[in-house]
Fold this sequence. Notes:
Elements: E1 2-6, H1 10-20, E2 29-33, H2 39-47, E3 50-51, H3 55-61, E4 64-67, H4 74-80, E5 87-89, H5 96-102, E6 108-113, E7 122-127, H6 134-144, E8 148-152, H7 158-166, H8 168-185, H9 190-207, H10 213-220, H11 226-236, H12 239-255
Parallel strand pairs: 1-2, 1-4, 2-3, 4-5, 5-6, 7-8
Antiparallel strand pairs: 6-7
Helix pairs in contact: 7-12, 8-9
This protein binds NADP nicotinamide-adenine-dinucleotide phosphate (NAP).
Amino acid sequence: MIVGFIGSGNMAAAMARGWAGSDAGDPPELLFTDSGSGRATALASEVGGGAAESNSELVEKSDFVVLATKPGALDEVADAVPPPKALLSLLGGTPLERVTRLFPDTPVLRLMPNLAVEVNRGVICMARPEQTDPELAAEAASLLAPLGTVIELEDKFMDAATAVMGCTPAYFAHVADVLIRIGIEEGLQPAESLAMVSESLAGSADLLRHRTPFEIRVAVASPGGSTEAGLDALEEAGGGEAFRKAAQSSLTRMRGD
Ligand SMILES: NC(=O)c1ccc[n+]([C@@H]2O[C@H](COP(=O)([O-])OP(=O)(O)OC[C@H]3O[C@@H](n4cnc5c(N)ncnc54)[C@H](OP(=O)(O)O)[C@@H]3O)[C@@H](O)[C@H]2O)c1
């Protein structure tokens, strides 16, 4: 199985590292292109794949082509390549209908992965046209399985999904950064503070599989205690509202409002 990435940026690198680092099954062979930066060659030598001379060469050689450019490059790429055997579009805020119109002879699936695919703990939302061959959809799902949890969605929900799972690793990283700095200001070693915060995030994520967010809050914040004081201050500073605004701004940008 050959997977070719048109575009070798952040998300292509994360998915490629996820496949290269996985010990589940046979990893796909990987091919890459870029628009001249040299990132394709660098990524190929990092993960053990190859760089193609052109998008057309990559398309001809690949079983699945991953469209991993920014959305603005879609028309230019579509104009210049032969029909891929199957196309996985990562383009944010770009409905399936728009991509299928440009690739009428190709089965197209839309994916919204998050950066944690790099460590095989990603979420990958997948939308497909109704007429998609079920065998192809199953093949794509099993190809993606080593990268994390695959969730099938209707295309109309992909923007919402992007706001809650695509963008959020950056929000969690922002919260982590603030907490790590506080630990350091209070005298912890940077590595200690990082370990405490990252393990707390990982443990809280596991807890969320067993308990509701409300239950976790109540169990940690005893009345009159230090966590309650912290939560009160967070609300007073608009903590919850700030995240609502962040998600809303992402949705507005995606929808081009
Ligand atoms: N980053 C995320 O966490 C994330 C999450 C979900 C979805 N996505 C989606 O994934 C896509 C890529 O995002 P990104 O963050 O990886 O962007 P990025 O880091 O800017 O990478 C874009 C890549 O596309 C290449 N490119 C542009 N035009 C090209 C062309 N005509 N032919 C071949 N390659 C071309 C660029 O080449 P150069 O290297 O030469 O500039 C670059 O390697 C976007 O559509 C985004 O919405 C990203």
